[in-house]
Fold this sequence. Notes:
Blueprint: H1 6-18, H2 21-28, H3 32-46, E1 51-54, E2 57-60, H4 62-89, E3 98-105, H5 107-112, H6 114-124, E4 127-134, H7 141-147, E5 153-157, E6 170-184, E7 195-198, H8 204-211, E8 219-223, H9 226-234, E9 239-243, E10 254-258, E11 265-272, H10 274-277, H11 280-291
Parallel strand pairs: 3-4, 3-5, 7-8, 7-9
Antiparallel strand pairs: 1-2, 5-11, 6-9, 6-10, 6-11
Helix pairs in contact: 1-2, 1-3, 1-4, 2-3, 6-11
Amino acid sequence: MSDLLPRELRILVAVAEARGFSAAAAALGLTQSAVSHSVRGSEAKLGAVLFDRGRAGASPTPAGERAVGHARRILRLYEVMGAEVRSAGRGDGGGALDGVLRIAAFRSAALHLLPPALERLTARHPGVRPEVRVVREIGAGAAGEVAAGRADLGIATLGGSPGAAPPGLLTGVLAQEAYHLVHPAGHPDPKSLPLMDWDENCGSYTRAWWRAQDWIPRATVKAEDDAMVLTMVGRGLGMAIMPELSLRDATEAVEIAGLGPLGPVREVGYVTTSEAAATLAVKALIRELRSGRT
């Protein structure tokens, strides 16, 4: 099998993102026939069909999703190679980093975990330009952004097993958070209130704890995110079970109670790839994230 060239990798990524050969060709300044020819050549080299073709355009097959993820990550390494080599060529030993650092994180992590780490990172390395995308922690979540090559590092809720890593990715625990009962301040019987919840709230390890509690009703109110849940609880509309990061913005309108020593706990950590973990900017960010652990 011949290796795919950078041009072929860029075409695969463009077709996947444009969802079609014509749109990809326009974005790249190529003809549609050149794009089609390149994709067919890549499929022959890899031995798999990468795109389903149809009247509505082209969508990646499962093999194509995997190929496009690798393509993005390889192209990203070309960018990082240039930035690190230029830094070393300036004669500072490569200590002064520069370039874009792409980060994906769920909402409360982006609000509370990342800012102090990025503040320290950019103070030490003013040339680093963080790009943070807030990703809903549903399905693939932030880890999926890393696997797909759209982020260099993700801040994600990790699996139920301590230290478990999604296939092919590296993780590190940054915080262990207990869940708490949150209810309107002064309510005489908060457990009698309706349960409020949101889709990102809990992993399977926490759901199992929930199912074992006969006092917790089914969620009767679903909100978009944790901030909305917290606001509605403060308005007296119900009670909620929430992790510590989501409670950083709690006001006097709510009270927070512990769930005991057997209450659920989640792990929040970073997710990256083995190749990204070896780059100077990602190493530096991980150091800052770890130095801010509580």
